[in-house]
Design goal:
The complex is a heterodimer.
Chain A (H helix, E strand, L loop, with lengths): L3 E3 L4 E4 L4 E7 L7 E6 L6 E6 L4 E3 L2 E6 L4 E6 L8 E8 L8 E3 L3 E6 L1
Parallel strand pairs in A: 2-11
Antiparallel strand pairs in A: 1-3, 3-8, 4-5, 4-9, 6-7, 7-8, 9-10, 9-11
Chain B lengths: L4 E3 L2 E4 L5 E6 L6 E7 L6 E7 L2 E5 L6 E5 L5 E5 L8 E8 L9 E2 L3 E5 L1
Parallel strand pairs in B: 2-11
Antiparallel strand pairs in B: 1-3, 3-8, 4-5, 4-9, 5-6, 7-8, 9-10, 9-11
The chains are: A mainly beta, B mainly beta.
């Protein structure tokens, strides 16, 4: 099983729709979780941290399920500007000294 | 406040040459990490430096080396370049060595080896 696994997509979603994607991780001892957004040929940017109780930031909601070892990202009322690659990042999943392991990313395309 | 800055933005090199990439962390951040991202993949960890000492190394050959300076800026060096070294090289910083805080990335250096 890969350390951090994501469905690469692409997810083609009409503007205004709700979209959700999951990320699974292999190390049950993982302590912290993040979603990063990466636009084409740009650097990853922190979208949100993921807390055990779940957290929301505007149209974005992140959830953590420790029992099943996955995190999820829900985007409501999707905008054209949400088109990007979403990287799942897990600490303690066997990553390097800084502890972070990145998934390959899920490509999201919002269509007008 | 300035974010993480990297230079150069783009670079084209020939096989066998060497390259030096530079990074300045966010002011007050003492930890710098380097990542390599090839097309279609997530970033892969190369090095972490904290307080001028190497704290970790990913699964990269010895052709890759790095260092951190007293002002916490960092350099990544790659010798004997191969075509497969073509990638986006990302520098990221965080305030401390800890594993629980997110990384803040620079714009990256896009290296093309021909």
């Amino acid at each position: 099983r890969k350390e951090v696994e994501q469905d690469p997509g692409p997810f083609n979603v009409p503007e205004g729709a709700t979209v959700a994607f999951n990320c699974t991780y292999s190390n049950s001892a993982s302590q912290s979780f993040f979603w990063y957004r990466q636009d084409c040929r740009k650097e990853p940017k922190l979208l949100m941290s993921v807390y055990s109780s779940g957290n929301e930031d505007g149209r974005f909601t992140a959830q953590l399920n420790r029992a099943s070892q996955y995190i999820s990202l829900l985007i409501r009322d999707s905008k054209l500007s949400d088109s990007a690659t979403y990287l799942c990042v897990v600490n303690g999943a066997g990553g390097g000294a800084d502890g972070l392991t990145f998934g390959k990313g899920t490509h999201l395309i919002i269509q007008p | 406040d300035a974010g993480v800055t990297q230079s150069p933005t783009h670079l084209i090199k020939t096989r066998g040459q060497h390259v030096t990439l530079r990074c300045s962390p966010i002011s007050g951040h003492k930890s710098v990490s380097w990542y390599q991202q090839v097309l279609g993949q997530g970033p892969q960890f190369i090095f972490q430096y904290y307080e001028k000492e190497e704290r970790g190394r990913g699964n990269f050959p010895d052709r890759f080396s790095a260092r951190q300076f007293p002002n916490y800026s960092s350099e990544l060096n790659v010798n004997a370049l191969l075509l497969g070294d073509s990638a986006l090289y990302l520098c990221a910083s965080r305030p401390d060595r800890g594993r629980y805080s997110p990384l803040h990335f620079g714009n990256g250096t896009r290296l093309t080896v021909t």
